[in-house]
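User: Structure tokens for both sequences below?

Assistant:
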Amino acid sequence: MNDFGGQNAIRCERRIRACDYLSVAQLYLKDNFLLKRKLSIFDIKPRLLGHWGTCHGINVAYANLKIRGRMTNFILGPGHGFPALQANLFIDGDLAKVDEKAQPNLDGIKYICQNFSWPGGFPSHASPVTPGVICEGGELGYALAAAYGAALGHPEKRVVALIGDGELETATALSSLNLCKLFTTDTNGKVLPILHLNGYKISGPTISARKSERELMEMIRGFGYTPLFINGDDTGEFQDALDEVGMMDVPFIIMKTEKGETGPRYVDGKKIAGNYLAHQIPLKDVKHDLKELDILETWMKSYNFRELFDEKEGFLL
């Protein structure tokens, strides 16, 4: 067991909460970003376009890696989860380095939310204009190949590739699993694949989620990796895995989180969190349905964002 805990674990949890909140805010809000007053239909964007279901898992992985400094590059396979990636880049000030309007303050929150998935603003997917992006992620399957390419001939690099479990069903992703056999010398960097096992893709369950834990791990072993299966929302478990990874030649983390976790569980009798219905916009009629608007407000208030962000001091993470 590692000694990661105490304040570090709290910081990790607070960062995940903040990024989850900002992910939701980018999808829905054009005003009232701190929920200082009751949420109104006039606070909601006229067009809702983006993907929620994978965001929490992205934030979990990014926070755990970032707090320990265990990556040189982070390559996001499910680039449709861009609100999560942008939230992290925004909080760290990386986005402000290329766009001075995206300062990590209230004006910056307004800027990234109003301009997310909006003409002339930020696209709904990770794109080449995003700081550090070398794998756009709009067409799934290329993350792992891009990670190995980034590490090729750079022994100083530690590249993490987050792969969606729907993405793993593509021929490109499956073929890329063989690349570990070519990275057996000290002249190349280290690649850490993390399979984000959230169980569902755009319209149904994933094949990986239908396998038993043993079956999935044996498949990964067959490609030459040493797999570690973890509950992503257990910070200690995640950090233990990172410690083990440091002692392995060809590690592979399988990180399980629920699809759409921290979001609404049921809407109109339909299961959302833990189901494919969380994949895109889980509350599609929130601008016209007051019941859905109340659900959104309850959802956003559950993150207690105002204890994570102060208008004068900024982020309190």
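Moving on to the next sequence.
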Amino acid sequence: MERELINKEREKDILRDKERGLSDEEIGKKYNVSFKYIERLITKEKGVNISRLNKKKRIRRFEPENFQEEKTSVWSFKNRGNWATHSGDYRGNWSPYIPRNVILKYSSRGDLVLDYFCGAGTTAIECKLLGRRCIAIDINDKAIELAKENLNFNIPPSLFPDFEVYEPELIVGDARDLSFLKDNSVDLICSHPPYANIIHYTDGKEGDLSFLDVEDYLSEMQKVAKESFRVLKPGKKCAILIGDIRREKYIVPLGFKLIDVYLREGFELYELVIKRQHNCKTTGFWYEKSIKQNFLLLAHEYLAIFEKPLKKEKENEKQTIQNNFKIIPKELKLTPELPEKFETTSVWILPSDDFDKILNSNVLLRYCKGSYLVLDFSINQNKFSGEEIEEYEKLDLLIIKSSFLSGVHVSKDMVEKFLDELRKLVYQKLPFVKDGGYLVVQVRDVRVGRYIEPIAKRVIDTLSEKSLKIKEIVIAVPDVSGYPENDRDFLSIIHQYLLIYEVKR
């Protein structure tokens, strides 16, 4: 009983210090408690997972300074955005730059936007600022209360005189049940779901998906995707932000798994954006630990922008002409050079002039202590060409590249042929890779017709060998300014993937 009273008093002291504005780091040192302990305590006491308890937002401006819409497949916001009542106080909320871009690109004034994981109301605030109607729901009534506080502001009529301001409708509800909405009634879905058992948004409220482990989470999100498809108008977009997670030193590709959930419900993938995170520490302790223990800090999320097709394709319309081509991988030789600095996060922004050299060096120096082999699927005059593959001694590292995916028109046939030949090649050469060695597959997404073929996701789906454990998913991007805009309304695809597997027999 005495210990329980002491704990209660300590909890009160911690909450008082939070009210006074002490940081989590200061409280952790003062009371010898973890960040997770502080987070759980605040969520239990306040009913919502927030980082600050005493700060009321003072509006200094109603729109971001020098804003420009994103033109490429990699979005990076070093300043998360603090116009209007936006802040990062709600744990895990997304930067307002994301819904602002999505709303401007894929909706018009007066359109109805739905956010079924409202949180603190980031999407709803942007809808109010941009002249869109909005319905925002959340299963947590305390989150809805917080969102109402954040939406309690008036926009000066002189600021935006040319469009009507709509007050968002906030509802306590469940994303799995949108029965209050009619079929084909929503113009845009823009939402940031919780991840599988990473950040908890309530104190264990029934129906809170943030407490579920991966398989149960995906099962429940299937219901969300089904309702999303029902309420969205044909031809309209559904934007979902999701990231990967790490379990027992290996990557769980939660992002690709959730994308698959929405695709199975009938959506097509219109864009696949990489959202770069900037809160990863890459120097000092984490830099040394990343190299010593050979892991990367997760610094990427996926913004999947789906489209509900205007009509379903008939089976005979899905078929394409079969080209008579053959894929034979070509062997390459690499010369590793010590980079000035090892990349320590999952997003590698590399100088464009030395992009391949620095990328190859990071891979070789991190994952190879002895022998390695590099094979490249390339194309010449509409036929894949290369050299015959010989047998090898035991390898520390096998690298498979796919140069043909860059700079050519890729058809569905080519994608399927590549995946089939990749599977055969991996299973043929895997016995030559040492136990504890690595397989690295370098690919990029491609657009086939109107929609994205998520090649990295397709590769992970294809390579189902039990001995292959996903060690890392790396996003590699050339660091150049002034990317050329793509045709029509599409984003320029500038990123590549390194799928890094550890061989564990």
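User: Anything stand out in the second?

Assistant: The first helix runs from residue 2 to 20.
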